[in-house]
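Sample intake sheet
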Amino acid sequence: MMNNEFEKARSYAYRLLSYRQRSGKEIESRLRQKGFEPEVTGQVIEQLAEYGYINDREFACNWVEQRLGKRGVKRLKQELFEKGVSGEIVGEALAGLDSDAEYKAAIKLAKKVLQRGDGEFSYPRLAGALNRRGFSSEVVRQVCQIARDGLIDVVWLDNL
C-alpha cells in the first residue's frame, strides 16, 4: 500500500513540475495539502532532488531572471522566501545580478506607467507603482527624479 501511495505522490509532483519549476518547499506543501503522509512526501522530495527535478538554487536563479523586469530586488527576495527558498540561496541568486539590473527594470516600468498616464508625471503615482513592485527606495528616487526632469525618454537602457 505504501508503494502505491508513493507512486501517486510522485505522479502528482511530476504533474506540478510539468507546469513550471518549483522549489522543494512548494512541492512539499502541495503534497501535504493533497493529503499525502509526511514520510511519503519526504521520500518523493528526496527522489526528485536526487534526479535533479528539484533544485532550489536553479529555481531561485531562474525566478530572478524571469521576474526582474517586473519586480525589484526587495519583492523578488520576498517572493523567494514565500516559496520556501533558504536565505543563503536567495542571497546567491540576487548576488548574480549586475549592479544596474534593478535600475534598468525600474526605468522600463516607469516608461510604461508614464505612457498609461498620457505622459503626465505624478510623483506619488510613479513612486507608488515602483514601491509596490519592490524597487529599492534609492532606485525609486533616482527614476522619479529622471521622470520629473522629463528625461525618461532620453535614457537609453543599452548604454547603462
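Comment: The chain has three domains: 2-51, 56-95, 101-159. The chain has a mean pLDDT of 87.
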